[in-house]
Amino acid sequence: MSATVLGISTFVYLAAFILSLAAARSEGRGLSRAVWWAALAGLVLQSVGMALRWWESYQMGVGHAPLANFYESLVFFAWAVILLSLGAARAKASPILPFVLALAAGLMGYASFAPQVESGIKPLIPALKSNWLAIHVMTCFLGYASFVLATVVGSLGLRALEKGRDAAGLEDLFARYLSIGFIIFTIGIMTGSVWAFQAWGRYWGWDPKETWALITWLIYAAVIHERRRSGGLARRAVILALIGLASVLFTYIGVNYLPGLHSYL
Amino acid sequence: MGHLAAFWSSLKCTVILLLSLVLLCVAGTIIPQHTVTPVAGQGLSAWFLARLTPTDLYHSLWLACLAGLLCLNLVLCMRLRIRARKQHIPAPRFGDAGEISLGTDSQAMRARILRTAPRTLRFQEKQEGSSILLFGDSEQVRRPAIFGLHASVLLIFVGMLMSAFGLDGHIELSEGQTAAQFVDAGGTIVALGFSVRCDRFRVTHYDNGMPKEYVSRLVFLENGAARAGGELRVNHPLVYQGLRFYQESYRGQLAAIITVTDGVHAWSVRVREGDELAMDDGKLRFQVVKIGEDVMHMGPALKLAFDHASGPRNLWLFQEVDRIKEAVPDLFERAPSFNPSLIEPYTFALMELTPEYTTGIGVKRDPGAPIVAVGGILMLICLLIVFMVPSLKVWVRLEERAGATTFKAAASRSGKTEAFPAAWMARIRRAGGA
Ligand code: HEM
Question: What is the ipTM of this complex?
Answer without folding.
Answer: 0.90
